[in-house]
Amino acid sequence: MLTMRDRSRIMLHMNKLSTSERVAIIRALVEGCSVNSTCRLTGRSIHTVLRLLADIGEACQKLHDEKVCSLLTKRVQCDEAWNFCYCKQRNIPADKQGQFGYGDVWTWVGIDTETKLIITYLVGTRNAKDAKSFMSDVAWRLCRKVQMTTDGLGVYLDAVDDAFGGDIDYAQLIKIYGPDKSGAGRYSPPEVIGIQQEEMLRHSRCQPCFDQLRRTPELDDADVKRRFTRLTNGFSKKDREYETRRRVELRLFTISAVFTNATGYPAMAAGLTDHVWEIEELVGLIS
């Protein structure tokens, strides 16, 4: 934990960073560099990088809340991506049990299946409380009845019902897995041999779109792929300055506003901006 004196020194150092230096740090983080490698590339201290990450992440979250609302989305897909921080859940020390930032960390994401716009996200745990918070946020950002698809996680049903009051076409797509692999491929996930669609609320006309989020190229890059891979040494070692949350905020905002995909630029396709954002504009949010 940083002391007030440390924070004062960091803020003083931050004030001395030029715009080009801030751009270099943010660009490295966006492109998937770890905090330590960003420090080596830019020659800045780890506390300076983390402070800038915290500031830019918070700014991205505020801008996202301001711009991404009253959406005319027709079809929504929601999913949860797993990673872990510090250690895996079964290895958490007794004195750190129940503390966020130790063990499983789940990132809930809602995506417009047409524009690929990130509607909202939540970093937390995979429980009913977070499911309801996440789904309430999804509902708040929409201004029309939608078709929604999720996986078969049980907490979704009550969360969707509470958030939308039944005024939604909602279906769950459940994967049917084959037998577990053994031998050389034992660490690979089981093969998907089928998908079962179950209509949950009203009559759903949702087309199968489950797992589209995971197969979206923009999410399958160095930053997300490394931290969300089951067998990796690139996991978050500690939740420094809410590093896990801030990286997600920064990365998912840039997916929508900065980078292109098969449908173009999601934020432009959704009518939320009239141009492609540059990293310099992100830095301008905190200047």
Question: What does this entry show, briefly?
Answer:
The chain is an alpha/beta fold and 287 residues long. Helix content is 40%, strand content 18%.
Topology:
Elements: H1 4-16, H2 19-30, H3 35-42, H4 46-67, E1 75-85, E2 103-112, E3 118-124, H5 128-141, E4 147-150, H6 155-164, E5 169-177, E6 192-201, H7 212-215, H8 222-227, H9 243-257, H10 266-269, H11 279-284
Describe the structure.
The protein has 287 residues and is an alpha/beta fold. It has one domain. It has 11 helices and 6 strands. It has helices spanning 4-16, 19-30, 35-42, 46-67, 128-141, 155-164, 212-215, 222-227, 243-257, 266-269, 279-284; strands at residues 75-85, 103-112, 118-124, 147-150, 169-177, 192-201. A 6-stranded mixed β-sheet has the order 3-2-1-4-5-6, sandwiched between helices. Strand 4 (147-150), helix 6 (155-164) and strand 5 (169-177) form a beta-alpha-beta unit. Residues 208-226 have low confidence and may be disordered.
